[in-house]
Amino acid sequence: MASCDLSLLYTSGLAIAAALLLWAAIGRRRKAGEPPLINGWIPFLGKALSFMKAPSTFLLSQQQKFGDVFTIHLAGRYYTFFMDPFQFVYITRNSKQLGFQEFADKMICRTFDVPSVLSTKFPEMNENLHRIYQYLQGKSLDTLSEDMMKNLQQIFERKCSQATDWEAEKMYKFCCSVMFEASFITLYGRVPAADGHKVISEIRDKFTKFDANFPYLALGIPVELLGATKKVRKELIYHFSYQNMTKWLGGSEVIQARKDLFEKYELLTVYDKAAHHFTFLWASVANTIPATFWAMYYLLRHPEALAAVRDEIDHLLQSTGQKKGPGYNIHLTREQLDNLVYLESAVNESLRMSSSSINLRLCQEDFILKLDGNQEASLRKGDFVALYPPTLHMDPEVYEDPKEYKFDRYIENGKKKTTFYKRGRKLKYFLMPFGSGSTKCPGRFFAVNEIKLFLILFATHFDAEIVENKNLGFDNNRMGLGILLPDSDIAFRYKLKSLEK
Q1: Cβ distance 79 to 55 under 8 Å?
Q2: Which of 192, 210, 454, 476 is the most exposed place for a label (fewest CB within 10 A)?
Q3: CB within 8 A of 158, min separation 6: which ones?
């Protein structure tokens, strides 16, 4: 029996060795002019495990070995990383040869079970959907932000009525509850039933379950292998069916425009339309909720930051003759909101520390990319070009003490600071939580306004403090996919601020 086991082990070892040799023999080879190639020795996976364990650390180590441009084999695909932020502009402006829509569309289709917007069955749908993003800018953005403020105030007033003394909650759960409900009502309208709040809570709970497995869906793992995720996704999509959405009162211009557009495509089924609406909801809140949490967490962790932000808000309200606290409604114009420089700096600093998006482009053909300083890189069709902003966000040459939270990092002489340097040169890109170039998140202005409005109302309604003695880290499951979630929730308590006389 023992000799049989040894023989089997020996044979298996030979098979594995042969497979590795075969991989080494037929694996991709670097061509003249191409960036250094990092294949890794594990078939198919390449360097995926090292990358997923600690992306920034891994990429910086490869930069030290191979320079600012290199190609890595990750899980069956090849990614050429550009590490020098001065080269980013050459990527973002080259939309003809470096595409985005095709692979993004495929990821969205398999994740949210929607038909391709690039399909010939739905002519010009992609272009039409992009035109609708105009409702997230200008006067429409003002209206959207005003509605969000009203809805947030109503939710905070409800919280006030429940807070007779110190109220203790988990902070992420608190942010999720408030932001999900306010965003849902602002975008899609109110559920008129007596249990409307309960209905939205049920949607939120299902959304949270789905979102927990979003990273696996985005990576291409079949939904059938993810437990109840397929069932939960179907239930969520059903919530956005025509028969449900027609009952909701109010809603935004952007959602109405999407409804009108979908009605023009006869080949879109009722399910398809509902799936598109659910996709938009995910895009609207999945990153805004954790971004709100981190902004609140860092402010409560740093009393001097919270004091500066509160003082700035107080001065604005006093100058506009507005009262703060429970029972008073606050109205702020976009200009007033933009002039809260300490608040904006605090939000930007939390985004710098918590964002982890990879900016990807797909090479449409073999070509030579011209770079800064007469440099160039030969790129292959079908490869990805990748920018990883967290390495920039944590660069000590750009940001002094980058691991420290500095709420006023984006302020200089009392005004917004937009000049950051590396190697003595001014950077065009220094903060990239929303992507880059033409693929920047179209909802970024509304998202930042939402976070600001939440913080303004929380600061004017409540005193608060963290009551758990622990420092939170990041959950790396969403590494490369947006704002990182905390590795655990944390308890805090809040009570009403006294009414102004």
Answers
A1: no
A2: 192
A3: none
Task: Answer yes or no: is 361 a known binding residue.
Answer: no
The whole-model pTM stands at 0.92
Strands 425-426 and 462-466: unpaired
C-alpha closest to that of 214 among 288, 115, 110:
110
CA proximity to 160, closest of 329, 326, 330, 296:
326
Q: Where exactly are the structural domains of the chain? A: 2-83, 125-380+407-496
φ, ψ dihedrals at 195, nearest 5°: -100, 30
- Which DSSP helix (H) or strand (E) runs through 449? helix 444-461
**Greatest C-alpha distance within the chain:** 90
Question: How far apart are alpha carbons 317 and 235 in whole angstroms?
Answer: 44
Instruction: Quote the DSSP letter at residue 44.
Output: T
User: Has 39 been labeled as part of a binding site?
Assistant: no
Query: Has 441 been labeled as part of a binding site?
Result: yes
Helix (H, G, I), strand (E, B) or coil at 37: strand
What distance in Å separates the CA atoms of residue 211 and residue 221, rounded to the nearest whole number? Answer: 14
Q: Take residue 4 and report the two structure tokens written for it.
A: 């049989």
Single-letter amino acid, residue 439: T
Q: Where are the alpha helices (DSSP H) in 302-425?
A: 303-319, 334-338, 341-354, 390-393
CATH topology classification for 125-380+407-496: Cytochrome p450 (1.10.630)
Question: 3-state DSSP: the chain helix, strand, coil percent, rounded to 5?
Answer: 55, 15, 35
Backbone angles phi, psi at 105, to 5 degrees: -60, -40
Structure tokens at 434: 């929303």
Contact in structure between 308 and 289 (CB atoms under 8 Å): no
Higher pLDDT, 43 or 11: 43
pLDDT digits (tens, 9 = 90+) for 89-122: 999 988 889 998 998 999 999 999 999 999 999 9
What single DSSP character describes residue 175? H
Q: Mean per-residue pLDDT for 199-220?
A: 94
Measured CA to CA, the distance from residue 224 to residue 226 in angstroms comes to: 6
Backbone angles phi, psi at 497, to 5 degrees: -80, 150
Output the DSSP codes for 95-122: TTTEE-HHHHHHHHHHHHT---TTSTTS
The 8-class DSSP code of residue 339 comes to: T
